[in-house]
Amino acid sequence: MSSRVMPYRGSLTSREQVAVYDFSWPAIIFIPLVAVLIQIFIPVGFRYFPIIDLPLMVTIFFATARRNPISGCLTGCIIGLMQDLFAGPLQFHPLGMYGIALTIIGYLASSLGLKIDVENPGSRFLITYIFFVLHQGIYFGVAHGLLRQAQVWSWSHVAISALANAVIGLFVFALLDRFKQR
Amino acid sequence: MDTFLGRYKNLIVLAAILFAQIIGLAVQVRRPAQSGETRLIRLWAVSAVTPVEKAVVHAQKWVYDAWTSYFYLRGVRRENRELRAEIERMKIDDARLSEDARMARRVQALLAFKEQYVESTIAAQVIGTSGSEQSRVLYIDKGSKDGIKPDMAVITPTGIVGKIMQVFPGSAQVLPINDQFSGVGVALKDTRLQGILKGAQNGATRLQYIMSDEKVEPGEEVITSGGDRIFPKGLPVGRVVTVEPGKDLFLNIRVVPAARLDQVEEVLVVTKIIDKEPDTKDLAPIRAADILAERLPTVPTKPGTDAAGNPKPGDANAGAATPAGGGSGSGAHPSAAGTASANKPPAGTTTISGAKPVGTATSPRSTPGTPTAGATGASKPAAAAGAKPLTTPGTGATSSPKPTGAPPTTKLPPPNGPASGATNAQAPPSGDASTTPTRKAQPASEQAPGTNPDQPAKPPSTEPPQ
User: Which of B30, B96, B210, B458 is the one with CA 20 to 30 A from B13?
Assistant: First the structure.
């Protein structure tokens, strides 16, 4: 399927840079699924892997590639709920904590994708960094504000984790670019 | 209206999705799941993913085992040598510790003290995690089909791991002790102070509710207290790393878990814990003299002497080698009653008090389990008396010719049959074959007190072995 050039009011980039991509259905289903599976499986052997958030990267990637806020919301919601299913005991981690966070991220990422170029590595690095911090903030707000859970916010930890995710995200996005259909 | 919906369609959809999820959160918080209860959607998800995870983990393990077992064998010989040496050291330690355990069981029996014993466990493999930093739960490949239930303890040989939270047909969710929602009743091993070990969001574990006027030293071991009714008492938990004054009159104590929680692969799920009194069937009957002997002070160490009666340098254990420790004494195999000094540094020698003639272990590699090997010059009445060869680990402590670093002990043995030293651990309680030849081999005046059941027990402190 070829990419569509979608004119959008208020876009800050040229028409070529806001090309909308589509994906095959297997890619739409299996990429998030594999991301969640890797996220729950890899940390068994790698101590620091949990700071990498693959479902977040996949959400950002799909949202920015499709550039459709509704589709971004739904993608984030589904991926977040999948992540919630394995995230922890029901007493301490009810379904919806990651769902809410990734829904907002999906919406913002797709909205941002309409306005700026999100294809080059520099913007991808910045987008991943900012959205990771935002994701952590939303999760903290849901856990602390809505559920009254005792959470600790560490700026240094979030900053380092965001940096790691931004670096890894460059490679993940480059890999996922292969699934774009033109 | 159409214009409004069309203009704010995206925002309306976002608000609707968020609203639905917040309502969902509220419903879950309003009606929290009971312990062990599982949402159907989560059950389906975990059940769907578990076979994939199991397949991946087992395939990975198979490849790893094939690589490490058949191809990558670098350093295995050296490691094997080191492990053998360690086993021999541990055999000697085992003999000493089993003696202490016997004594403890006798005391517990006197007090009708009930202990918790781990009756049965199930080995399980870790197949997944939560995948997030906010939660540190693990998934194991055993579930309700295998008899796993919520609130069962999960341990490793090195320390506790956590407890079972949710159980699925083919898998179960483990809440590790470093999770921020975890809490374990623990005690400090030396000071016996009790507190609660809590996890933190960053994966650290802290011991809480220890008053700030208590003295806690870094390095002190932390064990389970049994107060949470999940973990049996006395299991290793970790070690104190830092102690700082905290808020609200309590110390801020950081503990490093004994088990490697970040790299745990195989675990044991404790499926049954029983309360019972210590088994004293294999122990000898307790006599008043025994109790008295246990309470008497120990005998100070004397410098060892060689065959000529000269003091030996570096032999800290000489003159007081006792059956309970790394050496041998009454009840020991006489053939082992030698000075294993050949080719050995002085620290490795073990002089058997009162044993005559003094033999010399000529082979530095004679294993502790076979003390007759290489020991020359010693009479061997044990064989003549039909005693069994002392090859059990317990006998390994009779005389170790190797400088295995066995902790020298000056503690006198309990003057009773099997308790009287590192004799055959499988031997009958008293008057058995392993003690009879000893009495023949040694002069009567040099027997340890209480080894002869026909004689009244003599307080051990009255005549230290020479």
Answer: B30
